[in-house]
Design brief:
By secondary structure, the chain is of the alpha/beta class. It is built from 14 helices and eleven strands. The chain has two domains: about 1-90 and about 245-435, 3-Layer(aba) Sandwich (Rossmann fold), CATH 3.40.50; about 95-245, no CATH class. The strands form two sheets. The chain has a nine-stranded mixed beta sheet with strand order 1-2-4-3-7-8-9-11-10, sandwiched between helices. Strands 5-6 form a two-stranded antiparallel sheet. Mean pLDDT is about 85; it is low at about 105-115, about 210-220 and about 355-360.
Length: about 425
């Protein structure tokens, strides 16, 4: 049996369709759960843009900090399952990279293209090959159409690109958020016009209250402009959409099949914890859990969740509205506009248009993210807003929003979005487990 710090550990590795890749994983999980003294079962999920090594580092660092913060609870009595799912390690979005460089007053080079000109041919070809590998047979059609459109946008080339992209994905029928995202691949106007609209870089006008924490100022300039950039934006959206979809598919399998099938002695409490798209995954698992499962579903923790901030709202027809009230303990959500990925790039990728609404990325944005703004449009009394900083006291049977401006911050290692394994986040998770 593996260990993660003082706690026993097993791995649940899924394929893109939600099947367990290791036939012995369920048996290993059952053996761990039925070991003497185990009282709690924690399931951790990584997000998009993670390799297996990244996921292991995330889980190890976070759990070390959780274990150090546990008071009355013995971490040796907590079993941990690390979810591994095929979240593609995708090259940094070129608009994001250019925006950061622009904000810092630097000049950016990507491939053989510089900020302000078109995306370099080498950079686009690398992106096309990644998409081709990722989608398999369907990816070959996307790749061929992308190369054609990059040479010159006309009706035929744009139409082929959108058609091949739409054929590569399957929009879920029960998820309004994903259905709206998929609209890019079935443009209502001429395909040539739709693709042409992506030639120019997105102009992001932040809500005034976001500018002091975003690091991007009023707008983003010096981004790539040209037909290759337009094609690249479609490919970024395609991969983003597939990862978002896949998180839901794997989550539904985890909650609907894998966890209910485990044979465990009665009385064990289940805790679901996810980061980024992994927050979407564990929320989908919570939605799929049957009423009578082997566990007491106690808590759901979303660390900088990359899904709609209306996802838990019945009033907004959120895909996961039925999750509210299901855990016997707390639902806990971190959010901060320090997180550029959730505040800006999630909102941009979810709309991929040139709309520059006043509320771009904030709580009024229909495309806003959970990790930026916390849960929105919940029924009165369902949510508790904690803006105190680090005095963590999550309430049972409530959605608890934790403003994380003070501890989920940009570091030398990267954007705030990935800074969720720090000691303060560890204390928050420990407080959830002991609430």
């Amino acid at each position: 049996m593996d260990r993660i710090g003082p706690s026993p550990l097993c791995w649940l590795e899924f394929d893109a369709n939600g099947g367990l890749k290791d036939a012995g994983a369920a048996a290993a999980a059952e053996a761990m759960l039925n070991s003497p003294g185990i009282a709690d079962f924690v399931v951790l999920s990584h997000g998009w843009n993670n390799t297996k090594t990244d996921a292991m580092t995330l889980y190890g660092t976070l759990w070390r900090n959780v274990a150090a913060a546990l008071g009355r609870k013995n971490p040796a009595e907590i079993a941990v399952a690390g979810v591994l799912w095929p979240a593609k390690q995708f090259s940094t979005d070129f608009d994001d990279a250019a925006a950061v460089a622009s904000a810092a007053g630097q000049t950016l080079s990507v491939g053989d293209g510089d900020g302000g000109g078109d995306l370099g041919e080498d950079a686009l070809e690398a992106q096309i090959k990644e998409v081709e590998d990722f989608f398999g047979p369907a990816g070959a059609a996307v790749a061929a159409a992308a190369r054609k459109a990059a040479q010159g946008i006309d009706f035929a080339s744009a139409n082929a690109l959108f058609d091949s992209a739409f054929a590569a994905v399957t929009p879920p029928a029960d998820d309004p958020e994903l259905a709206k995202n998929a609209e890019l691949f079935t443009p209502t106007e001429s395909p040539e016009v739709a693709l042409g609209a992506l030639i120019q870089p997105p102009q992001i006008s932040a809500a005034p209250e976001l500018r002091h924490v975003s690091g991007l100022g009023d707008a983003v300039g010096n981004l790539f402009s040209g037909p290759r950039a337009a094609v690249g934006r479609v490919l970024n959206q395609l991969t983003y959409y597939e990862m978002k979809t896949r998180a839901g598919v794997v989550g539904a399998a985890l909650g609907g099949h894998t966890l209910p099938a485990l044979r465990a002695s009665p009385g064990k409490r289940l805790h679901l914890i996810g980061h980024s798209f992994g927050a979407r995954l564990v929320t989908a698992a919570a939605r799929a859990l049957p009423a009578h499962s082997p566990f007491e579903f106690f808590s759901l923790t979303l660390l900088q969740g990359a899904f709609s901030h209306n996802g838990l709202s019945a009033a907004a027809s959120g895909a996961f509205a039925n999750v509210v009230g299901r855990p016997s303990g707390p639902i806990s959500i971190t959010h901060t506009h320090n997180d550029r990925a959730c505040t800006f790039w999630y909102a941009l990728a979810s709309r991929l248009s040139h709309d520059t609404t006043k509320g771009f990325g904030d709580a009024d944005d229909v495309f806003g993210a959970m990790g930026a703004n916390g849960a929105q449009k919940l029924a009165a009394g369902a949510i508790v807003h904690d803006v105190s900083g680090q005095a963590f006291a999550p309430q049972r049977r409530k959605v608890n929003g934790f403003l994380a401006d003070a501890y989920i911050v940009q570091t030398a290692a990267g954007d705030a979005h990935n800074n969720v394994a720090n000691p303060t986040c560890g204390r928050l998770v420990a407080a959830v487990l002991q609430s």
